[in-house]
Specification:
This protein is mainly α. The protein has 4 helices and no strands. It has one domain. The protein is globular, with a radius of gyration of 15 Å.
């Protein structure tokens, strides 16, 4: 987050990674932002007439659609959305634990 604030528009799309699968998931979200179908898999190259089977990414449809819809509505990239999601989820988790 400090690099994002310090460099401004010159931050070049970097974000911290907490889990090994975040880069693949970010590329899946980026594909949804660009308009690819929900069944697209970032690890498998698709051909125009071939329908891809369900994958680990496509069975989780609520969160990717919410994230990509928010990003598309605000004009954000997948990298920016992942930067925003980290403190947002931490805040919402602490808020929900406080009220429990």
């Amino acid at each position: 987050m400090g690099l994002w604030i310090h460099r401004g528009v010159e931050w070049n799309g970097t974000f911290s990674v907490a889990y090994f699968d975040e880069l693949i998931y970010a590329s899946y979200i980026n594909g949804l932002i660009e308009g690819r179908p929900l069944r697209s898999d970032p690890l498998i190259e698709s051909s125009p007439g071939n329908v891809q089977p369900e994958s680990l990414f496509s069975i989780q449809f609520v969160q990717p659609l919410l994230i990509s819809g928010f990003a598309r509505a605000c004009g954000l990239s997948a990298d920016t959305v992942f930067i925003i999601l980290t403190p947002l989820t931490a805040f919402l988790t602490s808020l929900s634990l406080f009220y429990l």
